[in-house]
User: Fold these one by one.
Assistant:
Number 1:
Amino acid sequence: MSSEIAGKRLFVGLLAGSLAVLIVFIAAIWYLSEHRMYTYQRTILGLGGMLALAILLLTALGVGGLVLILWKRKTFPFFHSITNIAINLLFPLTLQVGKLLGIKEDKIKDSFIEVNNQLVIMKKIRVRPGELLVLAPHCLQYNGCPYKITKDIHNCKQCGQCQVADFLKLKEEFAVNVAVVTGGTLARKYVKEFGPKTVIAIACERDLTSGILDSYPLPVYGILNDRPNGPCQDTRVELENVRSAVLRFIDRR
């Protein structure tokens, strides 16, 4: 079993576990509404239970669709929206279930990013270079650099003390849009400004996860950064992974 597959299975397994927890919770509500409440209380809980049951069925269908897509390695358009709804609904519970099992939150988010990337790849997206946006985190910039590149990456003086110059070269080579951001607010600003059809985002587990979930239905391919000096300072990224992702999505014809 490859580590990549094992990584995906972690998130999918916890997602299924969260669904099981939700089923038990709704079953408990249903039981109370039938056996432990006064008539008016049973009516209120019964209505709530019916709504919860509808949500549960939709969520179960989404989780089942995700398993089918990953198992068959084939995309099924019918499941796209339902799967996203299921993930968004269950994600907070998934983190709590993982916490109870002693699994680190970053490990769960890392697994989720792998699942997301596989889903994006299976869509076989091809866009023109100008329709692709590469978002890099500002922590890639040398911590002592006086030049502000979040407003304009061309303010980089290409001194070689960090990897920002490499992203400028990537922009020039492939004619894709590249922006350096400080967080979700600025990332959303650039998404609105460039109007991309696909995004390649480099960040830590926390920022990538929130960005992927918030951006749907815009496809976001996530690449984790390296943090040799701790979070948010002089981080690095495997540039070949970024380059490979660009080549995967752009149509150079």
Number 2:
Amino acid sequence: MYNQMKYRIDETDKSPAYLQLYRQVRDDIVDGIYPNGAKLPSKRTLSLEAGVSTITAEHSYSLLCDEGYVEARERSGYFVIFSKDDGFAAVSENEIRSLPPVRKSQDVAKDEQFPFSVLAKTMRRVMSEVGEGILQRSENIGTAQLREAISRYLLVSRGITADPQQIVIGSGSEYLYGLIVGLVGRNKTYAIEFPSYKKIEQVYKACAVTPEMLPLGSDGIDSKALWKSKAEVLHITPYRSFPSGVTASASKRHEYIRWAEGKGRIIVEDDFESEFTVSKKPEETLFSLSQNDNVIYMNTFSRTISPALRVGYMVLPKRLAEEFSHKLGFYSCTVPTYIQFVLTELISNGDFERHINRVRRKKRNKA
């Protein structure tokens, strides 16, 4: 039953009103206050209660629709389609093959490429302003400047709160996969999506780990396979898993988080390419949704800037950041200091985010 006088806009919160409203309604859906099938308050009712325009309320509901929490029904309103107990049967190989093809990181459309002129200008400026500083040795987990820039970017754009000491810079995803095995241990049982990016399986096997293959369903890993698995580490690509193109729904993402509540379980969230979602807001991350401090978040600049840079990063749970320092802190950073300074400048001056927003607008216009 709808509880009046509940939603409020916090004037001290720097995030837009529509995002605040979106989060409040989303949390009520996840908590079961609005169960599956329930009708949500009308846009007018919501706007009056929260003290915002109906356009703001509509924008909030639009985001909930984008992420699979609710659906709009013509002349009827908005209804909850999220369910914590959702489970989906695995799709056949023929169904997987019928899904839209997903490009590899090297196959970047021309209108999605990072502007070379901007990159070249930034490289020259860093070379001129930093001078011989580009020859200095980076900290083992990456320069403080880049880690701080990534920390700020993730907080604003992805809702991820992470101290720079939780961030580790490395030369691409494959290198970071190996570090994860070194951190978590080879004696663990790892599970990955099937099908998935081939190099994930190859790197794990090269590290003396034979991953368990969990079949993908229409919106993520098949529920029966997930809960039957003996895995302690689950490696997932929630956004447009390659090569299937499957994106995990809101229900499935929360199912992954519930799975990880088991003792000692860890999720590796491989968030490749999600910045280019056509949604009106960035995709939700499991790292930001989870309250269990057991998600390792990974991303790279291969898709957003260039695969030639070979720069990736991972955000460790707080409890693993110190353990990483003890176990693997002796590893030198594999990304040149110069490239790290260039990325720092691109993120800090807004060029990186402007490029992402430009590409997302173009993709939405084509959709």
Number 3:
Amino acid sequence: MKTISITSENGETFSSVSNFFIDYYMMQANGEFVKIYLYMIRQLQANHPISIQEIADHFQCTQRDICRAIRYWVDRNLLRLEYNQENELIGITIMHSLMPGSSEESEKNSGMDLLNKPVSREKVTPINQFRTPSAVAKEPEAPGIPVKKSYSSIQLQAYGKDKEIESILYQFTMYCGHSPTQSEFQTLLYIYEQLLFPAELLEYLIEYCVSLEHTSHRYMEKVAINWYEKGIQTVEQAKQETAAYHTLNAAISKELGLSRVLTPTELKYINTWTNDYAFQQEIIIEACQRATANNKVSFRYINGILTNWHTHHVKTLADIHKLDQEHDIEKKSTASKPSSPRKVPNLSFNDFSQREYNDQDLESFFIDEVQQLSKKS
């Protein structure tokens, strides 16, 4: 067979890929992971800053897929995560490719050491003893929801060495753009330990909240508690719940005649109605229909209706009808009451003290007036 040569046209640019990568890493890796690694090299040559979301958009996949690929190459010391002084993720460095098993590069250089802080020599409780039903039972609980407890620095360090927690912290870092603060770490452990979320469910929770542009750990905790109350224990159940959420958004948009994407403010209203007020879709749609009937297609107006129903402890459509009936009865009762006659002020001379005259007095008064006139003439 004849050999062939490979050339390029003038002006074409190229990215350099290590032969070690081709010989030892590429063949064993998932094809999608390889594409993302090559794209990282391409961005290196372009010297163009880029976000995880932009990479996900380029490959038409989720941020979770991109994070999983980056994690794969970080674990193989081909990528390193870079942080600033505030432990915020600011970059990814492409490492020098080495033969597998080489000891020249250690895991601590990957940037993952920020998620794996060294454990103090003080005595700590083993990891597998933290997450037990009995440990949770000892905590005083509000009805149905475990009270959030505080973890010591030693416990946080111990948890940082656990593989599942390490994966959760990594997902938080990649999606939120910075490694967890102590408060954020406490919240993640509360969801993991006390609400007993499996690691994959907690990772999905992080991804879901970020997709709604909510990176606050308090928001994540609120959603987690809502899922806990609904008995959601798997990613599949969570996906069904979030699908219902998106179905609700579509139903609201259809009811209001909106053909655009809902704004963050509008989504915040919906979150309040579903999470804070715990209204079912039929209740929210009823409020939308009433707003439309009154020609007031406004989320603020709809929120006023739903807030009023929430104040009156509405749970079902029957509760709304009952509230309507009570309002109608009160309205009719007010209308049936006879209105009090308006008191008109007496503007007659009765408002003044009057002098009584008899006929003789009047005659004398008349004579005096005539005499006065005669004298003037």
